[in-house]
């Protein structure tokens, strides 16, 4: 059974500590969730995720529906068993992916007709169908099927997406009937304050066990994102978890926490890893650069992860240049550890009434 | 310091048990050595190699000389430290790779001029230079620089390669001066019995601490390989380890052990893994095939490795189809474990005087 409890509120900001309970573990918030789009967090094993302290991971309904199919995952005993991940899983509804698809897709109030990015085959997804799929996948947290407007978009487009997201949220709620899976509503509204207010009002009226802030980190300036977050957390109930979708840059995690966000996910740490870039306490480090060819220091000299304890920049750069898979694995491991550890440090700071100090120190050392 | 001791001889075959001691551990033979060409065993971590019971791994002088360079590895503290592998390492001399290169290369008694496969740059390697490189890399076992004749080749070509391999072996021995690294000689001679005899006579006269059988598994029929092995092990001293280079098919390991071979290496288990093929006790299984789409059994139902305990064919096939890195990692792990475990079982069988029974059972269940 899913429960959430706020255990502490920061005095100087909207930051807070909380605790999520699921059938697959209890997780402290604020939390960063690694992304395992296709039922695997790219380049690392579940054992590595456990070792680095990952709690909940995210997987993707759109991708799993197309391949290998929700029925197969259900026959395997659900997503946890299929991918050998015993801890928490959240499934994104696929809305974001479908609305990002190039080419033909037709949206109506009933749902979306689209072509698969894998083989071009034609598909129809409605809120009800997505609920069926997410229940077959069996994650601990499922997301409502929503319409995510692009950035930039007109006020009218954003308004229509809010209206449809509310309509679909009701249909999702009415057709979702798995008591062991929490269904979260999603707030849309792009960068328009009044649309965010409208969306929050309509979605929270449906009384979900958690709320996501969608449609941010889609290309808008950071000031817009922070402004909308400043607004949105005040529109959401204090006793439910708040999940900022698709956000994972270190500075955005810090800013999100300061604005009352409890959960984050993003492909950033795993994606930049595969391009040879590592997070460090002093900013990003492009380890494939020639300057690191004979640098025998750790990726991040302030990090105590298994990778930083055992491998040098010179070795990892060699792996990157030689196109070895281990390069992906090592940098991905470090990047995920970096964010997970950062969230632990943030929780510790909030617990000790020094989140403000953490915030200042972060910007003093992290270079852009 | 390097030592080798034969601890038991099989009564019914040339199979034997032995023990290799190096500065990085003591290893029971017969042993299979995973290949880490570019200072990494493709798709797995050193921790995984330790967990699966790997003892010595092989790395490649030609590749490491070109990238990242022997000087860099030396500055890193040697190959063990560079790649975070605390157990045994053997470096191949690069002869095989250079003689396999397409395009321009010029061989003389002095050495080989060739073009890099990476950037086309021109290089010269001689026995003396290769010894310098291998000593900088700092493996526990180094191989002499040899000339490996292709298959098929004329008697004259094979004879010339034997003569040059002997000349170079003497130069290697004379210039090698690292007491903490054992230098092995290599027997050539292609599929010609009298050339194998000549090569064995000349190379063993140089009194190396170990001998490799090179120039096999290069395309010749299996009968030729087995015939040459039948002959060669009788030409080698019984108190020195015998290493059959580039051999790693399960049946060839069994046949090699029966012919007195103590050490093997091969890219086969890691290479076929990346193409979606797994070893099993019943033969190879092409897990990417559609027939495994909903097969929730382990890759090998008779295997107790971490992969077989936790993942299904259906899941691994999904990863292969979705082009996920984890597919490579899981199948590579299993394939290496399969060979390492097979060698453990072989050692156990020899120890218990039932290698003949092992041999019969292997062919009864392994399908080609």
Automatic annotation (TrEMBL), chains A, B:
Give the tRNA-guanine(15) transglycosylase-like domain ranges.
13-367
GO-annotated cellular components: cytosol
- Gene3D superfamilies on file: Queuine tRNA-ribosyltransferase-like
Stretches for region RNA binding? 246-252, 270-274
Q: What is its EC number?
A: 2.4.2.29
The domain of life for this entry's organism is: Bacteria
Gene Ontology molecular function, alphabetical? metal ion binding; tRNA-guanosine(34) queuine transglycosylase activity
What's the name of the protein? Queuine tRNA-ribosyltransferase
Species of origin reads Syntrophomonas zehnderi OL-4
In the UniProt record, the gene name given for this protein reads tgt
């Amino acid at each position: 059974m899913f429960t959430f409890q706020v255990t502490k509120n920061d005095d100087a900001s909207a930051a807070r500590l909380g605790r999520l309970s699921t059938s697959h573990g209890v997780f402290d918030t604020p939390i960063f969730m690694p992304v395992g789009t296709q039922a695997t967090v790219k380049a690392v094993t579940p054992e590595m995720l456990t070792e680095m302290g990952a709690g909940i991971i995210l997987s993707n309904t759109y991708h799993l529906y197309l391949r290998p199919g929700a029925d197969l995952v259900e026959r395997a005993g659900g997503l946890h068993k299929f991918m050998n991940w015993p801890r928490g899983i959240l499934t994104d509804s696929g809305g974001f992916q479908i609305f990002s698809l190039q080419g033909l897709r037709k949206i109506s109030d009933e749902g979306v007709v689209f072509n698969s990015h894998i083989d071009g085959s034609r598909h129809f997804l409605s809120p009800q169908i997505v609920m069926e799929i997410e229940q077959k996948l069996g994650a601990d947290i499922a997301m409502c099927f929503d319409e995510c407007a692009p950035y930039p978009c007109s006020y009218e487009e954003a308004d229509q997406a809010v209206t449809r997201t509310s309509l679909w949220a009701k249909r999702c709620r009415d057709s979702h009937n798995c008591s062991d899976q929490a269904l979260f509503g999603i707030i849309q509204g792009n960068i328009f304050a009044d649309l965010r207010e409208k969306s929050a009002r309509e979605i929270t009226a449906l009384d979900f066990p958690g709320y996501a802030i969608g449609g941010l980190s889609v290309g808008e300036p950071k000031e817009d994102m922070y402004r909308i977050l400043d607004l949105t957390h005040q529109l959401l109930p204090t006793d439910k978890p708040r999940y900022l979708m698709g956000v994972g840059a270190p500075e955005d995690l810090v800013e999100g926490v300061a604005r009352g966000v409890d959960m984050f996910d993003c492909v950033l740490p795993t994606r930049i890893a595969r391009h040879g870039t590592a997070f460090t306490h002093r900013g990003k480090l492009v380890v494939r650069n020639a300057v690191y060819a004979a640098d025998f220091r750790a990726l991040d000299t302030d990090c105590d992860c298994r990778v930083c304890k055992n491998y040098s920049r010179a070795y990892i750069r060699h792996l990157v240049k030689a196109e070895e898979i281990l390069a992906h694995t090592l940098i991905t491991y470090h990047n995920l550890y970096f964010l997970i550890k950062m969230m632990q440090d943030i929780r510790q700071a909030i617990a000790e009434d020094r989140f403000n100090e953490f915030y200042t120190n972060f910007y003093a050392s992290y270079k852009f």
